[in-house]
Amino acid sequence: NIIFIEHISAGCQANLFYADEPKPQLEQWTDAFRSYFELAKNRTSQLGQEINQYTTNLKEQIDPLAKVVTKITEGADMLRERIEVEVSTVRCALKPYIEYVTSPFEKGAEYIKESLDFEDLKATVLQKSEELRESLEQGVKELQAKLDPST
Q1: Distance (Å, rounded) from C-alpha 141 to C-alpha 132?
Q2: Do 2 and 19 contact (CB within 8 A), yes or no?
Q3: Which of 17, 27, 89, 144 could form a cystine bridge with 23, CB 3.0-4.6 A?
Q4: CA 73 – CA 33 distance, rounded (Å)
Q5: Is the pTM value of this prediction over 0.85?
Q6: Per-residue confidence in pLDDT tens, the chain, 151 aa
Q7: Beta-carbon contacts of residue 31 (< 8 Å; ≥ 6 apart)
Q8: Measured between alpha carbons, how far is 79 from 18 in angstroms, rounded to an integer?
Q9: Residue 20's closest CA among 28, 9, 12, 8?
């Protein structure tokens, strides 16, 4: 407790009051919360400003890149469309030549397919294989007989 004394021109007069009167604990907690809340609010505001500045800087850097990407994409789309048109034109122009060149081969393949009976061919190959085997066996026996006169 502190006692303040005021000097009045007519004389001295003592003025007593309590400068540091104790606060109730709830009021102390309330003051501490308010102080913390103000500090948090100021820090949040500062962080918000920093985020806004960062966002602005990032946008300023990204905008030119986005424009370049857009131009590249548009150019690629136009180029793809032009190439598709050119390929289609070339395909149409070459179609008669391709048909002219491939037609004899297709006709020949079709003729061979129609004229060959694969079952008959298979039977013929098996028959000729058997005849060749028999002929080789006969030739081997004759050769053995010539080389070995005792048999």
Answers
A1: 14
A2: yes
A3: 27
A4: 55
A5: no
A6: 444 444 444 444 444 454 556 778 888 888 888 888 888 888 888 888 999 999 999 888 888 888 999 999 999 999 999 999 999 999 999 999 888 888 888 888 887 777 777 788 888 899 999 999 999 999 898 888 888 766 5
A7: 23
A8: 88
A9: 28
Cα–Cα nearest to 133, from 119, 145, 141: 141
Q: Which residues of 120-140 are buried (b: 16+ CB within 10 A; e: fewer)?
A: eeeeeeeeeeeeeeeeeeeee
The letter for the amino acid at 110 is E
Token pair, residue 117, equals 């009976």
Instruction: Decide: 4 and 17 in contact? Cβ < 8 Å.
Output: yes
User: How long a stretch of residues is the chain?
Assistant: 151
Q: Helix or strand or coil: residue 16?
A: strand
Q: How would DSSP label each residue in 48-75?
A: HHHHHHHHHHHHHHHHHHHHHHHHHHHH
